[in-house]
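[job 0412] stage=fold_complex status=start
inputs:
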Amino acid sequence: MFGRKKTQQCRSTPRTRGLFKSGYIVMAMVSSAHASSLDDQIQRLTADITRHTANVYALEQKLLHPVDTRVIVFLSIKDSDALELDSVELFVNQKPVTAHLYSDKERHSLGQGGIHQLFVGNLSDGPHSLRAVINARGANNRFVRRELVHDFRKESGTLHLQMRLSANAPDYDPDVSFSEWK
Amino acid sequence: MAERIRRSLIQVLGVILIPILGLSGPSGYAMNQQVAAGVIRFGLDTGEPAKVVGQAAQLKGESAEYLRARLLLNSGEVDQARERFSAVFEGHAHRGESALRLAELALAMGDTDGAEHWFSEARRTGFGDVAQRALLGLAELARGKGERDAAGQYLARLDDGYRAAVGYMNLAADFAREDLDSSRALVSLRVAMAMASRDDNSVRAQALLDQLNLRAGFLTLNAGDHDKAIDFLEKVSLQGYHTPQALYFHGLALSGKGNHRAAMQSWHRAKKFPLAFPGVAEAWIGMGRGYDLSGYPGQAGESWLAANAAYESERVTLDKLADQIGHDGAFKTLVRDARVDEIQWFLADSRTLTQPRMAYLLRFMEAPDAQAAVRRVARLDELLVTLEESESDLDVFIDMMQVFGQRSDRDIAGIRSGGIQEVQAGLEAQLAGLVTKAQAAGQKAALEDLQWSLRVSGQRIAGWRSRMPEYPALIDSARQEASVHQGAIMGLRQRARALRKEAARELDDLALAFVDDQRERMSRVLNKTEQQIAHLYEYLALETLEGGAQ
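[job 0412] stage=fold_complex status=done
writing structure:
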């Protein structure tokens, strides 16, 4: 019975429509200028708050992690194509200290040379053991879970420990090399 | 004896390890410069610049200035960042990346000539991803100026993948808008499909392919090529934002071929989605049309009446939504509540596309203005949360330092009186005596360990004694620093709240305008079904009259 029908046209006259249009344009311009000024204000506030937060964070680091006992563990990836990191669990002296599930953004950053500060804590002087459990997917699409242990001795002063993840063909088994510096 | 020495040693170390030792450090702790660069890169990439700003001073080497410029940009210091990026571009490293950032900054300011200049420089000096992004930027600028051949030439130099697919899709949209014939647009869409299929990110590729197939289906449907349209539309996934519209077009194409029953199946499926999605309201009308064309006028009338009821009910939903926006604000009503935190994640997935509020949010967020307005409010909420966290941290620090201040006075007095040194000297003497007596290898090893520990604590005591006079002043200065930061929070919070209010008002205005548009849309489709019903009754009345006359 019915074919395609045209929708009802707007009942306003062309003149009124023109007036509306110019009104809209003026409103859009005003609103856009206003939004841009709001964006500027937000940007200035962001700068102030970022600076403030950085100061608070630095103060927190000084207070919570005294220099002489501090241990910092970093994680980097040698070849991100060979290994897609899923998560890392970290144990110090058999006690879990941190676990991190990596997002796509973080994985991408690690692949571009980013280094994740995985753990900051305090340890007394003497021998300690660090155990890392790596969950990842190799380039051959196989999911792997590897446990790696590193023994180290903490002396006076901050100890930096870097874990470098790598995986080699054909098995793409994750391997970690540890390096330490003060 | 060894156990006693160990216990005494722990006591000595316990006194020495009071946390105020850390106060003498710089604001960011010392770090290998290569590691510092990596850590800053990670902080910037993951959106946490505040945590890595303290390391900026340690940056050295060829990436240092570039990373500092990125830190400035992420911290909101845009003008300073622009200057730094320009300076980096004049150097030898990170030239392409800097040019790309400058192009993006120019684009954000609406300076298309500046953006074109910097995109060209990024393309000339950059490699890999940087050059690819610059090429897409140049293609989009050329397209904006109406220079489609130039845009096509830039796109032709892009590697296969997502960026090339987006570029060709935009080009196809231009061709479809300008040309009377859809062939150029369809060719562009075909190229875009080939490019999208090479995207490594399968989820993103599928979403883009859905959009491309929908557009191609629409163009071929308008050109009257129903078979081709059906072919394209059947490739659109059944669980996506574009599904209802694709189902509606699919029904139209089938109906165009005379297969009304199959068309009604597609429309029936589209009807299960909320009316907010494009194509759903039309699918409701289509059902009646399908019955009518199949020769069932009674069922056609029922379908249109059902459609009317659905539209009326949707108008009530929209009225309620407008009331809620007026009462709670658009951010809470449309964005925060649409997240539906209370339902379990495994249920959330299947319910997402069937919730009217989420459907309206998705449709509202199609507009760039709405995206910017929501982003502003969300950013200000994040800043307010950051300030709250900082305030709570500072409260804890100030309390803690008051306790430390009292404790350190006692500890310093103990060290000054020489108590600890005496204990240390006593332990050293005891240990020396034991070393001469030890014979078994195990005993010797244990004593060597203790000697090492005692030596370390001796070094600590020496270091601490030399720094001892500074501690009260250091604690005091840290306490003052914390109080200054705490005082600054109130002003920052007031500013953030005022801006949040303003940003929320803008978002509310946009959301209410959007809801008004939707109400208008519902009125239009309601008008259409009422017209169809009127026509149907007229037809039935005439039929009855004709039947009576015979």
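[job 0412] summary: Residues 161 and 200 of chain B are 8 Å apart (CA to CA).
[job 0412] exit 0
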